[in-house]
Fold this sequence. Notes:
Blueprint: E1 4-7, E2 11-12, H1 19-33, E3 38-40, E4 48-50, E5 53-54
Parallel strand pairs: 1-3, 1-4, 2-5
Amino acid sequence: GISRVYIAPLKNNSFTPGVENILYNELVQILTAGRRVKVVSKPEEADAKFEGIITAAKYASSASTSSDQI
C-alpha cells in the first residue's frame, strides 16, 4: 500500500497569484490529518508522487477552506 506521498510543487497557470501555495498547504494538511499517509520531502522516499497544474482559480470570501471545497 501507499504510506508515504511526495507532493511536487504545483504549477500555477492561472491568473491568480499564490494559489499554488494555498492549495499545496491544503493538500498537505488534508493528507496528514487522516494519518494514513506521511508526506515526505523527497520523491525518492515516497511510494506515490502527486503532481498538478492549476489552470483556473478564484478566491471565495471565506475565513477558512475545508476539504469539501477542494
